[in-house]
Input
Amino acid sequence: MRKLVFNLHLYLALTAAAFVILMGLTGSIMAFEPEIDRLLHRKLVDVTPGAHALSFSEIASVVANSFPGERIEAYSPSTSPELSCRVEVDKSGVVYLNPYTGQVLGVGRNQPEFLDYVHQLHIRLGWRRESDPGKKIMSWTGVAMLVLLLSGLFLWWPQKRITVHRGTEGRRFWFDLHNAVGIFSLLFLLTLTVTGIMIGFEGTTRPLVYKLTGSKPSQMPRSFPPAPPGAKPISADQALDAARNALPGATPFAVILPQAKGAYRILLRYPEDRTPGGRSRAIVDQYSGHVLFAEGSRTAPAGARLVNANRAIHTGDILGIPSKIVMSVASLLVVLQASSGLVMWWKRIGAKRRSTLSAASQGAD
Output
């Protein structure tokens, strides 16, 4: 049994090592996506807080003067006094503005940037469509990691090595390092792996979670009331006020403007929702101002809350900076485990080759 498990562990590791290392490296970066993004775009993001923030209507006038003929598609209001606001326009991309003075700080690129490439590599090997094979490969890499962790625990158990002895070198050093790092990081790596598998196979796991919790997904409206004769659309400020009233205490971070037959979509998050994407949303009729749908993370179905918690645990958002640090370090330990395993295998191959050559040499003598 031990030899069977060892061979499974070895050959699965050799097959999946490159994907595991890529997953670990990108995951360690993704844990701090918002912080890195702010660091890379400080001139576009950081502002000096003022006494009064401009309304969306006032910001729209600034954009119209600076980018004539372009249509505003969405607003991203400042979520903190020292941060700029963003306006998405249909041609130039993302416009960054000082929310107090209306000064245009710059325009973001339309093309994907560094963090977006890292994100896409992590979840789908750089492919961008759900139909591409990248997501399946990375999802099954998560399954391979789970098998490697459990088989590694089985192989470790008889000897229970937990230290790297001073003075050891060569293959023994890498063997001790592989064992020690693996056992001390096991709980964190299992957490990363299991939550990642649930995300990777969400088409299967999400319905299962709803079934286990006895809940059902909320049904968002698929169609919207027609425009009354002569009615004029409400402003984005009015739509935002309606969303705030529907979800008191939640901070809006995106207001997506409607098409001719659509409705306002407002994304919000409560203070405990540390994930950048938030988990609260409202849909507001663009003519009447009525809230057609509102769901907050506090009142969402049990299945949705569990799915959201799973994602927050995986990304490290669940407890803020401390848990982000833990998950980022755990991702780097994945890289160390895979790399040390490869070095062990390489040194083992080298030792066998030298042994064979030595035996051949002695036979010739």
